[in-house]
Design a protein that fits this description.
four-stranded antiparallel beta sheet; 127 residues; 4 strands; 45% helix; single chain; alpha+beta
Length: 127
């Protein structure tokens, strides 16, 4: 006759380890899901702020191009205020190329900086 395991027939020591193991698995799953959710919320916030800063950059570039580049004027520093943020434009002229440095800050204090190169001759508007 085969020997039978003591833990299978005596229930005193079988259920506690299995319940602890199952509880550990459930808590690990729950905590991992919570950490993943928190990470996703932060990632979404950063993406929204990045889209806002890119939008402010595009609006500031178009406005600066309309105000100064089409008239072949260059102003040292220009600051534009939009509903979703503020953009500061600092132009630097080197020969035929204008380097525009944009410093952008959204309403939620997300800071962003970008540089745009532009050719002087391509910005002249034909009469």
């Amino acid at each position: 006759m085969k020997k039978q395991l003591h833990s299978i027939h005596k229930e005193k020591g079988f259920f506690l380890p299995s319940v602890l193991f199952l509880t550990t698995i459930v808590l690990l799953y729950f905590s991992t899901s919570l950490i993943t959710y928190k990470h996703d919320v932060q990632l979404t916030y950063n993406l929204i702020e990045q889209v806002k800063s890119q939008t402010v950059f595009q609006m500031a570039y178009v406005q600066y191009k309309k105000d100064y580049l089409t008239q072949n004027k260059i102003k040292e520093t220009v600051e534009y205020s939009f509903p979703i943020g503020i953009a500061e434009v600092k132009p630097t002229v080197t020969g035929e190329i204008i380097q525009l440095e944009f410093t952008i800050q959204t309403n939620n204090d997300f800071k962003y900086s970008v540089t745009k190169l532009s050719n002087i001759n391509t910005n002249v508007v034909a009469p």
